[in-house]
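INTERNAL AUDIT FORM
Audit reference: QA-55
Scope: verify that the stored structure record matches its stored sequence.
Auditor: D.O.
Record contents follow.
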Amino acid sequence: MIELVDIMRQKDDQPFAELLNRFRTATQTEEDIKCIQSRSIDPSDVNYPSDALHIWAKNNPVNRHNEMKLHQIPAQLFNLKATDQYPPNVSQQDINRILARPRSETCGLDANICIKESARVMLTNNIDIADRLINGQLGTIVKIEVNQNNKKPTIIYVKFDDAKAGNNLIQKSTSSFVRQNRVVPIAPVLAKIKIHPNKPSPEIENAIPFNIGLRC
């Protein structure tokens, strides 16, 4: 077992990190609550940061917000669906049970995502930790490369907010578009999901289109 003890996302704001830790352990003070409440802003307010990352406790409001933000973007919508492959000896019951699992149990990937150029996105899995292509990195889709035969996206080019994210991949790329625009090419990935996680068993190959989740 490994215990993570270093705070990374709030490492430059120690008071805020300590406040979050108190909420995490239900030891928050009245001052902590007042501090959080002082930041409350109504969506109807003219200063409401509509492009900021939004977080909800349930999936339905997340989906509604993402759909609303996507609808506001005047660009072509791409609906990316996973292609699932499985051994012939796996029962349909097992297949249905595995594919019904939440994203947290399917390698952090969605079975279906919708994207547009200029949409905000977030990496949902670690691609290259050393290159800072890690779970939680936020960015904007600059370009979507499409296969002209089947009209399906083959590469998504993302400009990450973190200027260091994907630097190694950009420098090694043979694409002039990647180097000139300093964008990171995100390609399709293949995730293997064990039917019985704690014992030897067949695997379902979950060919999730891309290793990103929509975060408008």
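Auditor finding: record pair retrieved intact. Residues 201-216 have pLDDT under 50 and may be disordered.
Action required: none
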